[in-house]
Design a protein that fits this description.
248 residues; eight-stranded parallel β-barrel; 11 helices; elongated; 16% strand; alpha/beta; TIM Barrel
Length: 248
């Protein structure tokens, strides 16, 4: 498949640069947004809460995920409840474990039962998906984010894992499976075929959306022209006089 038109998967923008997020919010293909502390730090966000509240104010009509900052279960719950209060379209990102590897199942149960829309993040295994799914209240919306791109970084094909994850999350009517950390546009189609509901993409990948379905012969010619233009612009030179030691 080489078109977005018939896909069911939702495209989310994963970013923390305010101007970029605002620009992508004007694209009707983008149905939601995700952020994380690492992206925010790279974007030099100074006030986490002020940034989040302002983003919800200017994008009130689509889901936006913001992550808790704490590491202990009690404070995670407190922060999650506070973040959920920023707006009705907010999903609270809670990692599958804390920094020392303890599964945060009780936290997920408490928050989901309280009606907090969760985006459970940083999952990489089918076992983690099963654990998380068992903690979610069936009538509370939730997103389960499996980092397929990081799975692929280890040399493992993420597609079979995502297919299994999709079968697990299918039992939860208000839970959606998200393909996280994609590396290329091809991942959109892989995620769709695996049964994912959402894929979240960095702006540099989103900027390539118009390449989908592009004629490959034309793309080949554009590539040749790019190499030629750059060689000319760099004023590179090759001495074409007969090299010493070569015979006719």
């Amino acid at each position: 498949m080489t078109s977005l038109e018939h896909l069911n998967i939702k495209l989310f923008c994963d970013a923390a640069d305010f101007s970029s997020l605002l620009a992508w919010s004007a694209d009707p293909r983008i149905q939601g947004f995700t952020t994380n502390p690492t992206l925010m730090r790279k974007a030099r966000v100074l006030d986490y809460e002020a940034f989040g509240r302002e983003l919800v104010r200017v994008i009130p009509d689509r889901p936006i995920s913001f992550e808790v900052l704490a590491d202990d279960p009690e404070t995670i719950e407190e922060q999650a409840l506070a973040i959920a209060g920023w707006g009705p379209n907010v999903y609270v990102k809670v990692p599958v474990t804390n920094s020392w590897g303890a599964f945060l199942g009780p936290v997920l149960q408490n928050l989901s039962r309280a009606g907090v829309q969760l985006n459970v993040t940083a999952l990489l295994t089918v076992n983690q998906v099963e654990q998380v799914a068992a903690c979610l209240h069936p009538s509370t919306p939730a997103i389960i984010s499996v980092f397929a791109g990081r799975i692929a970084d280890t040399g493992v094909d993420p597609v079979p894992i995502m297919r299994q994850a999709a079968r697990i999350t299918a039992s939860l009517p208000d839970a959606e499976l998200l393909w996280a950390s994609p590396r290329e546009l091809l991942n959109i189609f892989q995620a769709e075929e695996a049964g994912c509901d959402i894929i979240t993409l960095l702006p540099d990948i989103l900027s390539k959306l118009d390449l989908i379905g592009k004629d490959l012969e034309a793309y080949s010619l554009e590539t040749v022209n790019m190499f030629y233009r750059d060689a000319c612009a760099a004023a590179y030179h090759i001495d074409t006089r007969k090299p010493v030691g070569l015979t006719a």
